[in-house]
Amino acid sequence: MPRVVRVGAAQLGPIARNEPREAVVERLCTLLHAAADDGCEFVVYPEAALTAFFPHWYIEDPRELDAYFEKAMPSGPVNRLFREAAERRVGFYLGYAEAAETANGRHHFNSAILVGRDGSIIGKYRKVHLPGVDHVRPELPFQNLERLYFEVGDLGFPVFDAFGGRIGMAICNDRRWPEVYRLMGLQGVELIALGYNTPLFNPDADQSPELRIFHNELCMQAGAYQNATWVVGVAKAGVEEGVHMMAGSCIIKPTGEIVAQCKTSGDELAIADCDLDACNEGKRSEFDLASNRRPELYGALVETG
Amino acid sequence: MPRVVRVGAAQLGPIARNEPREAVVERLCTLLHAAADDGCEFVVYPEAALTAFFPHWYIEDPRELDAYFEKAMPSGPVNRLFREAAERRVGFYLGYAEAAETANGRHHFNSAILVGRDGSIIGKYRKVHLPGVDHVRPELPFQNLERLYFEVGDLGFPVFDAFGGRIGMAICNDRRWPEVYRLMGLQGVELIALGYNTPLFNPDADQSPELRIFHNELCMQAGAYQNATWVVGVAKAGVEEGVHMMAGSCIIKPTGEIVAQCKTSGDELAIADCDLDACNEGKRSEFDLASNRRPELYGALVETG
Fold this sequence. Notes:
The structure is a homodimer. The first copy, chain A, is an alpha/beta fold. Chain A has one domain (4-304): Nitrilase/N-carbamoyl-D-aminoacid amidohydrolase, CATH 3.60.110.10. Helix content of chain A is 24%, strand content 28%. Chains A and B meet through helix 5 and helix 6 of A and helix 5 and helix 6 of B.
């Protein structure tokens, strides 16, 4: 039985700081319906896809900060996305800021969920590789306060059986770390969904936008090839509250080749038929990880401070 | 004090099966002198640079097989290379087949050495990621019998202080494994020298030469960027005893960009000034491995069968 999943990389243009959830969900649903009309059964949205990427600013007012976080998923305006996706039989990956109530208080994560074609949540991932810092740097044109606003994810790097294959998730800066792809590769991942919010300019480094776009693709392409998996990388793009964001959402084959890519910096779909069996060749030969890795010699990879 | 090392990637064209060591060393010395004339202080030769790449054939006669291995380094015709390199004050990386006598018998490795500008051996690496199989497959146009002829390297992934910086080594198929770059990255590597003998056609996979060249560069560029290190990849190229080999020897910056590359499939030098301080930006920011990795979550990377 063929295992072809038609996937839509649903890039978003900027979200204004004062844009209500309802308006964002309207945009997500517009992309959803366009994807469904084109036969997609899985749509990948960006990281933190429900709001502006608020770690770019220091938010002093705790109530204002709290408003960026989802306390339940789905809830409020987001229910509409779940309902319409289930009606259209389209599953999705959605990145969002998560406030989790636990026995020992409230915890904040930069999270993503995998939702099945019936609208049920199949799995969750919480971002591990938080970039940025935990304090304000007033000299910068914009901040990256992910380490102030979020905790390091505590769910590991799980993969889930879905869409006839094995699906993994990663978020933004995770994609620069080969460990992330490998930890999912070792679990037989066949498609990694990955949303990002990445400035085109790094205030701390002398990197042209072209170089940063090259790095974005390089890491995802290498991760795909070296683990024989599809990778679907999806941007929040355009100029968001003065921050120029990288576009270039793309779908990458297990050979590392880009097969579909967004051309604009706005709301846009890139669509590809992802044959999960295209992973088999690599997984059985060059990247047969069980036969070809030498983990007994890799001890230093897991040594801590 | 600037730490600029002028490096020559000394690509070789094919070596005939019956080509004597003296003739090969003559070619190595020709490249050495051209590099020295151009101001190089470090030259990188390919994997198994002293002979044809014999794992491509099944060799039944044990004496014939034994003749491909070096029993001492340097010895015989190779002494000339060491002597002329020391005279010109040029250090080098040299790949060769090593027969090592130990208390428990003779062992065979696919090895590389790092030689200082004074002609002394600074360090050795023995290839860990042996590709191919350990038995003949008569249906193939050529073999890859590395797992028959060599043992898995037993020296780990060492780095060495040399040429004013920290130098690491890898060999051929090692370059496809992000673990290799990372294990050296964790030791602060600033330049990885890497020789390869890679067929342009894979008898086991439907891969065009263009795709295989893309994979070659993709892995080395990602390894360079993700560890903020220079990578110098050097081919044995051309048609060697009927096997079409990949060329494209190149020098890659810590940003992952290729800054020099061979254009032919023959003996050729690609030269670049490698500023080891160009590693600093990446090592202090994005790829500050001590701050930005999460090894406590990477346990599965070292789990064995």
